[in-house]
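Preliminary data (for renewal application), adenosine monophosphate complex.
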Amino acid sequence: MIGRQGSGKGTQAERLSATYGVPHVSTGEAFRAAVKDGNELGRAVQGYLQRGELVPDDVVTAVIKEHVFGPGAPEGFVLDGYPRNIAQAEALATMAAPRGLDVVLDLEAPVEEVLRRLSARRVCSRCGATYNLLSGPPKQPGTCDVCGGALYQREDDTEQAIRRRLELYESETAPLINWYREHRCLMTVDATGGPDDVARRVEAAVEAALDGRAA
Ligand code: AMP
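Predicted structure:
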């Protein structure tokens, strides 16, 4: 799943993973968990996350290799936040061969919309559930509806880091859209509106892609 920060990748990937019974693999989540844990990976990536920079390709690809293509690898998966540049897409194509990917979803949301969403985003420190203070606030301010954990604002949801992450999206990740279009597995989904509307479009796009594959 590709798309600007704030386009709803995490939310939609979580839903897809529940619908199709396959794991949701988020490199950003894996890194945030490692930072929280204070382990070696966390110490290595912390600075990149804080600044909104991309973690080096070999580190990210090693995480994907372990979670998705290692021993006990799942039958299917929803990737959220990987690949983020052409080098990672090439690494993924090699790891996923010969079966390849069923579909790459591009969640399309304009910059003004994602800026609004990112500044209002809050995340549960315990279970990772995401809230938007404007369009989907928690029932009790500061507290997760799902598990009662405390909500926090991501360190990289500051104005400066957001600006840097969006710049990197344009220069590094947006070229993937054409790359995947050429590889004939791209589906573009309108990611404006509420999460339920977007989820319906996402599911329709996945079904269309899977039908195409079966045909
Ligand atoms: P996300 O939760 O997907 O917005 O990712 C948060 C941060 O994790 C990014 O700003 C990067 O610092 C890092 N990150 C996540 N995925 C990747 C990736 N595929 N390549 C490089 N850095 C990544």
